[in-house]
Amino acid sequence: MEEIRTDPISGRKVLIAEGRSERPSDYGVSGASHVQKTEADDNCPFCAGAEHRTPSPIREVLDEAGRWQVRVIPNKYPAVDAHSTISELGELRTPFSPPDQAYGSHEVVVESPRHLRDVTEISVEHLAIVLQVYRDRLQHWSTDQRMRYVQVFKNFGFAGGASIEHIHSQIVAIPFVPESVESELQGASRYHQRHQRCIFCDLLTQELEQRSRLVLESGRFAAFCAYAGRQPCETWVMPTAHQSDYRMLNDEDTYSLAKMLRQVLQKLHILISQLSYNLILHTLPFSNSGPDHYHWHFEIVPRTTHLAGFEWGTGLFINPLSPERAAKMLRETKV
Fold first, then answer.
1. Which of 21, 107, 159, 175: CA 20 to 30 A from 81?
2. What residue ranges define each of the domains in the chain, with the CATH number in brackets?
3. Which residues face 317 on adjacent strands?
């Protein structure tokens, strides 16, 4: 049965229409003609030995022999520019004002010196170090008074928007709070004002009790398929204890988080052929507002369906697999 579901936090609406998965198609898997490399080649700029092909590192995590294991570098092709200026028009801006310059910072986190494709190929311990680097870069940018928000994300696979397959993620610092994050903040704030509780905590309590969308739980973290997931098997991972800001994460918890993220991605790789996905961190903006009602979390969004005319025209997503069925399939997938 087709359903209209509303995300309880942001208010975003999604159509759950499982019947659409039966549609005939004259086309193969998107990106099937894109051949994925499985071995390093001389053209990869992220492999150890090719450091001269990238900008100088902002930060490196070294092993006992002094060799880098995780490397943070400026993006050579940034979406935003640290040399731009921030507009001072503010409320004086009109629809006919000249566009703002894209001020901000764009970094790449090279997650391994080896030519690997995904976090499922590195150890839990190594992934925990990557998660600590995310936290430390957030802490760094929080001291810059010009920045309001930092988006940490990973694009994996052709359909996920990755241009280089060597394992990496990206960090973009910007001087404003994005609209999608603002809608989450506002929805969470309204709920807290009405009930004096965090909506994410209540949502998580419900998921742990009902278990119909639960994928994994470890005590400190839980993974569940989103009630109004935009894509099949969209999975959220969040701490079970209330924590508004990813910067609050301690080193011990990064190991537990790394273990869970790796397990979820292993299951997705087994379940979905030629998996592409986006991994997105949602955390509190750099301000003193919202610590009681916001709850940081990762969203893993497999890219198995594509935006077409209806989606572009309405802004609504169509998900051809119910979150309950997706969670059952993920739970039953052994890694």
1. 159
2. 44-76+101-332 (3.30.428.10)
3. 14
Helix/strand number for the chain, H first, E second: 6, 13
User: Comparing C-alpha atoms, which of 82, 86, 50 is closest to residue 68?
Assistant: 50
pTM of the complete model: 0.88
β-bridge partners, 120: none
Distance between CA atoms of residues 180 and 290, nearest Å: 15
Give the phi and the psi of residue 133 in degrees, each rounded to 5.
-65, -40
In the three-class reduction of DSSP (H, G, I as helix; E, B as strand; rest coil), residue 72 is classed as strand
Query: Residue 284: which residues within 8 A CB-CB, separation 6 or more?
Result: 244, 245, 246, 290, 291, 294, 296
Q: How far apart are the first and last CA of the chain?
A: 31
CA nearest neighbour of 228 among 1, 3, 6? 6
